[in-house]
Automatic annotation (TrEMBL):
Residue ranges of domain RNA polymerase sigma-70 region in the record: 26-92
Family matches, as Gene3D superfamilies: 1.10.1740.10, Winged helix-like DNA-binding domain superfamily/Winged helix DNA-binding domain
Lineage of the species this protein comes from: Bacteria, Bacillati, Actinomycetota, Actinomycetes, Pseudonocardiales
Source organism, top-level taxon: Bacteria
UniProt entry keywords in alphabetical sequence: Sigma factor, Transcription, Transcription regulation
Domain RNA polymerase sigma factor 70 region 4 type: 124-175
Family (UniProt): Belongs to the sigma-70 factor family. ECF subfamily.
The name this protein goes by in its record: Sigma-70 family RNA polymerase sigma factor
InterPro entries membership: RNA_pol_sigma-70-like (IPR039425), RNA_pol_sigma-70_dom (IPR014284), RNA_pol_sigma70_r2 (IPR007627), RNA_pol_sigma70_r4_t2 (IPR013249), RNA_pol_sigma_r2 (IPR013325), RNA_pol_sigma_r3/r4-like (IPR013324), WH-like_DNA-bd_sf (IPR036388)
Database matches in PANTHER family: RNA POLYMERASE ECF-TYPE SIGMA FACTO, RNA POLYMERASE SIGMA FACTOR
Length: 185
């Protein structure tokens, strides 16, 4: 099998048969996204790295139980989300979410004031997201920042789609209220 050209499903099947190279390819393909999800949940680089490592160990150990009812990416997002949430439960949930570093675009280089305003606004939004309870923050991150569909998120969080929609509505409402408070106060 040509590992680089294989689908995720084929790689999982090969890894289930003991092909370590196939599992290594899954790790190579999905670690960056899993890290991004963990970092957005945890707001801390070191904790996100730990969560991703724990997630990969859990995925390796749980490989035999993966039946293919969902896409491998959905399964991996569920594993890393659970790992990150376990870390949240082990610590205080008030660590600030730091905005990701941005590279100045050509327009921002010409308009440093505009860049500063956008950076301040982004930092404000990140702080407001961090203030959300994990039950609201996680689906919001997966939907708005990672672009997962409602069905994918419901599967990751193991909740029905209507419950997810309700959580997202509450998260958005709470986020808007917090942003108003932060801007006014």
């Amino acid at each position: 099998m040509t590992v680089g050209a294989s689908t995720d499903q084929a790689l999982v099947a090969a890894a289930q048969r003991g092909d370590a190279t196939a599992f290594d390819e899954l790790v190579r393909r999905h670690t960056a996204t899993m890290y991004r999800i963990a970092h957005r949940i945890l707001s801390d680089s070191a904790e996100a790295e730990d969560a991703v490592q724990e997630a990969w160990v859990s995925a390796w150990r749980g490989l035999a139980r993966f039946r293919g009812d969902s896409a491998p990416t959905t399964w991996l997002y569920r594993v890393v989300t659970n790992s990150a949430l376990a870390q949240v439960r082990r610590r205080k949930p008030t660590v600030p979410l730091e905005p990701t570093a941005e590279v100045l675009s050509g327009r921002d280089a010409v308009d440093p004031e505009g860049h500063a305003v956008r950076s301040e606004e982004a930092a404000l939004v990140h702080r407001a997201i961090n203030a959300l309870e994990p039950s609201q923050r996680v689906p919001l991150v997966l939907r708005e920042l990672e672009g997962l569909s409602y069905e994918e998120i419901a599967e990751v969080l193991e909740v029905p789609v209507p419950a997810l929609r309700s959580r997202l509505h509450r998260a958005r409402t709470t986020l808007l209220a917090r942003l108003r408070e932060m801007r006014d106060g």
